[in-house]
Amino acid sequence: MKREDLINLCRKARDVGKVRHEDFVDYVIGLEKKRRVGDEWVTSEAAYMSVDGKLAMANEDHRLQGKRLDFEDPVVLLDNDEQLTLMVTVVSEIYGRRHGIATSRKVGGSPVERDFPWEVAETSAIGRALSAMGYGLLPGAGLASAEDMERVMAREPVREAKPPAYSRTAASQRPGTLTEYQKAELVRLYREVHNVADEAAALEGLKARFKEKFGHDLDAATYREGQDMIRFLNEERRTRKPSQP
After folding, report:
1. Which residues does 100 contact at the CB level (< 8 Å), separation at least 6?
2. Is the pTM of this model over 0.70?
3. How far apart are CA 138 and CA 122, in angstroms?
4. Least C-beta-crowded within 10 Å: which of 38, 43, 58, 212?
5. Listed residue (77, 72, 83) closest to 110, CA to CA
6. 4-30 average pLDDT score
7. How many helices (H) and strands (E) in the chain?
8. Could you tell me if 204 and 240 lie in one domain?
9. Exposed e or buried b for every residue in 1-12, given b needs 16+ CB within 10 A?
């Protein structure tokens, strides 16, 4: 999905309090969703906001309204050798109490679920609670976040041969890697921030920035690193001084 598509989709989502979804489009990623209809697999596109985007929306909304937003300690619903399930409750002075429940699969889950089950389950549960308040609740996404879909794509395949539930627009792209949308957005931002007219020069500059910040260049970047760099460049763009005449 192009940036314009993501912006238009965000505009269809209902505003929450004092914030608009389109103002947080940099936290949104488009993914292809596959489902089986009869004997055929049908592909449709959907967009998902990352949990930190939902947090950014919620914090900004409550800041603008001068109200409190609190997160209660996670409640363990299930913890065994196969999975960890947590519930997190978010308490808003404006919207009341909402809870989210999420599971990390220790067996058959994605690498990050297996290595960091508590962090993954808590983050996902927070995202679902915030979605229940309306933050990041984009058409077609349900309560899921971008991270939830990333983990679905990275989980170990089941024995029955069938296509993955979700895949990126580029069919050959590895789960968790930088998307084509992110790459295009990084180039656009870099050219704007640094007044670079040539796209090739912008790519070289981005490779150097990724090498400095993450220890590898753009070609080896992950989805999460791409999101971090997009936010970094956006912040640099907002805080830079106007050009002198």
Report:
1. 87, 88, 90, 124, 125, 126, 127, 128, 129, 130, 131, 132, 143
2. no
3. 21
4. 38
5. 83
6. 92
7. 8, 7
8. yes
9. beeeebeebbee
